[in-house]
Amino acid sequence: MNRTLLAIVAVFLVGGVVVYWNTTQQAPQGAGHSMAPPDTGTLAEGAPIVEVALPAELSANAQIGKRAFDAKCAECHGANAAGRNGVAPPLVHKIYEPGHHSDMAFVLAAKNGVRAHHWRFGDMPPVEGLTDGDVKLIARYVRELQKENGIH
Question: What is the pTM of this model?
Answer without folding.
Answer: 0.76
